[in-house]
């Protein structure tokens, strides 16, 4: 009887001790809180303007790899600190259609580099009275999900590429990408060369 009581106490202690361990949690992603959409106008020194979200910040680039940029270049980064993302915008002035064709080919080559990780690359044409261009939507776990080019077909060329400082994972990034994509479309629709 004494032995059975001791065995019962031992089993109860083992059960209580083993129950204090926490079960592993399922893998999940943190909840993202999105700000209300509102925009402000950005006027560049490089002959263009557009509207950006009020929750984004402009970083002008006068240097690239410790070298001063040429006078015909104008680089601007639009940083989305809450979403760990940056839209890189580069501007080029051109004088003839051959240069414009070369710039378009360079852009296509840069976008095509994402085919290693992309499940698809879809392009959409921008055909406004004063601005022409292309928007590239890159599907899958590519480093850049959106890229675009804009031109007035006379002298001005813009290339934009959106990058996130996270490991590409389309499942976890989808809500953020969809939220920022609306801001990129707003930027493109309000873009003006002068």
CATH homologous superfamily caption = Mog1/PsbP, alpha/beta/alpha sandwich
User: Poorly predicted ranges (pLDDT <50, ≥5 residues)?
Assistant: none
Helix residue percentage: 25-40%
Q: Could you name the CATH class?
A: Alpha Beta
What's the number of domains? Answer: 1
Overall geometric form: elongated
Care to count the β-strands? Answer: 12
Please work out how many helical segments DSSP would assign: 3
The major pleated sheet works out as:
7 strands, antiparallel
Mean pLDDT: 81
Which structural category do the helix and sheet elements fall into?
A: alpha+beta
CATH-defined fold name: Protein Transport Mog1p, Chain A
The radius of gyration computed from the alpha-carbon positions, rounded to a whole number of angstroms, is 26 Å
How would you sum up this structure, described in words?
The protein has 194 residues and is of the alpha+beta class. The protein has one domain (37-63, 70-193): 3-Layer(aba) Sandwich (Protein Transport Mog1p, Chain A), CATH 3.40.1000. It is built from three helices and twelve strands; from the N terminus they run H-E-E-E-E-E-E-E-H-E-E-E-E-H-E. The strands form three sheets. Strands 3-6-7-11-10-9-8 form a seven-stranded antiparallel β-sheet, with helices on both faces. Strands 1-2-12 form a three-stranded antiparallel β-sheet. A two-stranded antiparallel ribbon has the order 4-5. The longest helix has 20 residues, at 170-189. The radius of gyration is 26 Å and the shape is elongated.
Short description:
The protein is an alpha+beta fold.
């Amino acid at each position: 009887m004494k032995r059975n009581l001791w065995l019962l106490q031992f089993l109860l202690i083992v059960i209580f001790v083993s129950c204090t361990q926490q079960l592993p949690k399922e893998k999940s992603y943190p909840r993202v809180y999105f700000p209300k959409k509102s925009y402000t106008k950005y006027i560049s020194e490089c002959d263009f303007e557009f509207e950006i979200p009020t929750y984004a910040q402009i970083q002008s680039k006068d240097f690239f790899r410790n070298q001063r940029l040429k006078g015909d270049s104008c680089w601007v980064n639009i940083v989305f600190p809450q979403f760990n993302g940056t839209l890189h915008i580069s501007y080029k002035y051109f004088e003839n259609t051959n240069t414009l064709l070369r710039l378009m080919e360079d852009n296509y080559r840069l976008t095509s580099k994402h085919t290693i990780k992309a499940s698809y690359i879809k392009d959409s044409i921008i055909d406004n009275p004063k601005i022409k261009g292309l928007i590239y939507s890159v599907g899958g776990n590519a480093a850049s999900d959106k890229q675009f080019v804009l031109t007035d077909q006379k002298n001005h060329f813009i290339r934009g590429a959106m990058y996130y400082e996270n490991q590409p994972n389309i499942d976890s990034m989808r809500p953020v990408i969809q939220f920022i994509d609306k801001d990129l479309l707003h930027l493109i629709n309000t873009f003006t060369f002068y």
